[in-house]
């Protein structure tokens, strides 16, 4: 049996978890540490575009610069066959959007989730990161329902250039 290729010499790529406008997120396995991870790969067409690669790098730096219980942790970044990737903590795969598809949440759950998301955004703002894409699909939920902000794909860092209208 042939061993799967490893990204960065340590990450086994597994099934697709989701697809967005710029990237795909796969389930993965860190063979060095023996743990599940999520691996975000910039899409092939965008990997050839310098501006898309720069934005992907900004996303990785923005999220990696935050250490907060309500922000998805970034473990590593790299490039595999000219495709940049970000390795993150692996959560259940359920989003707040998925939860809302089943109807309204109880008031106490809404208050708890808002408190967690606002805490994460406050920490990001203190670190000079503006997320700019907060929506239910970008709030991941742990098995116990704890919220974690994800997808810093259009984040702005304090030291980055301003985004022009239409971008």
Q: Would you mind describing this structure in some detail?
A:
- The chain is 26% helix and 32% strand.
- It is of the alpha+beta class and 167 residues long.
- It has a 6-stranded antiparallel beta sheet with strand order 1-2-3-4-6-5. It has a 3-stranded antiparallel beta sheet with strand order 7-9-10.
- Strand 9 and strand 10 form a beta hairpin.
- The longest helix is centred in the last third of the chain and has 20 residues, at 107-126.
- Residues 162-167 have low confidence and may be disordered.
Quick rundown:
This protein has helices spanning 44-47, 50-64, 96-100, 107-126; strands spanning 6-7, 11-19, 23-30, 35-42, 74-80, 83-89, 94-95, 129-130, 139-141, 147-149, 156-157. The chain has 167 residues and is α+β, with helices and mostly antiparallel strands. It has a 6-stranded antiparallel sheet with strand order 1-2-3-4-6-5. A 3-stranded antiparallel sheet has the order 7-9-10. Strands 8-11 form a two-stranded antiparallel sheet.
Helical/strand content category: alpha+beta
Query: In sequence order, what are the helices and strands, one letter per element?
Result: EEEEHHEEEHHEEEE
Q: Tell me the major beta sheet.
A: 6 strands, antiparallel
Strand order of the largest sheet: 1-2-3-4-6-5
- What is the CA–CA distance across the termini? 47 Å
Shape: globular
- Rg, alpha carbons: 16 Å
* pLDDT < 50 runs, ≥5 residues: 162-167
Strand content: 25-35%
DSSP helix count? 4
Number of strands: 11
Average pLDDT rating: 87
Q: What is the helical fraction, as a range of percent? A: 25-40%
